[in-house]
Amino acid sequence: MGQSPPPAVPAARQALRVLSHLGAQRGPVPASAVARDLGIPRSACYRILTALVDHGYAIHYPEDRRYGLGYAAYELSSGFSRQAPLSRLGAPILAALVDHVGETAHLGVLDGTDVIYLLEQRAPHRPVLITDVGVRLPAHQTATGRSLLACLPATQLRALYVEDPVDRRSARPFRDLPHLRRTLGEVTRAGFAAESGEVSDGFASVAVAIRDRNGWPAASLAVTFPHGNVPEESWPDLAHRIERFASELGRRLSGAAPAR
Question: Tens digit of pLDDT for each residue in 123-176?
């Protein structure tokens, strides 16, 4: 017989809910607002906030009667960055993806209007590409970047592209922001992003976004291949195969339990 699941710890769950809620706000908020938004009694909310303050995870602003994140929460964020979970969790998944499709794969993240490549796993007998680790490219020109930009709300996209995107490499530039929006709309409808010859002559890429537990684009998984290796009509099938690995990385990043 299998082991029974561990008992729930309601107090810990409530404390984590309060801490997550504070982290999602634009600034410090009243305890009453936290209790109302989370649907917990005010007395319990005050006890949780007091404990978070005592341990440095929250700060109380007495003049404003509000609570915000504390330095201990910041240290958690810094520790997350130091441990580089995307790279650590992504490396074996990237290797498995390359074994599965037989082509070079990349893991990239969005940084403003650029995409930065964190990992590359080159397939056997494939050439070195421009999308090496640490390389930064305009997001709107790459499949990796487009898959991530397509996940952003329109207001965020406008904020990023105050001016029209400028093509630094391609002979087929994005002319304006409306053109970019149309391109991203196609990405949304297709469920994946693709580019052909816009980053490296003779090569195409297909990419799928990885969302975090809040639905925000955390990273993108892409496969790059010589034009003749994967015909364009097969790109949706390739994207479906990439999606399986992207979903697994997203699950690991969110801390979800392993699939049975």
Answer: 887 877 767 777 889 999 999 999 999 999 888 888 888 765 555 444 444 557
Instruction: List the domain range (segments joined by +) for residue 63.
Output: 10-72
Cα–Cα separations (whole angstroms), residue 204 to 14, 35, 235? 47, 51, 10
Residues 108 and 160 in one domain: yes
Distance separating alpha carbons of residues 38 and 40, to the nearest angstrom: 6
Helix H, strand E, coil C: the string for 192-248 is CEEEECCCCCCEEEEEEEEECCCCCEEEEEEEEEEHHHCCHHHHHHHHHHHHHHHHH
In a domain, 3, yes or no: no
Round to the nearest angstrom and report the end-to-end CA distance of the chain: 16
**259 found inside a domain:** no
Give pTM, 2 decimals: 0.66
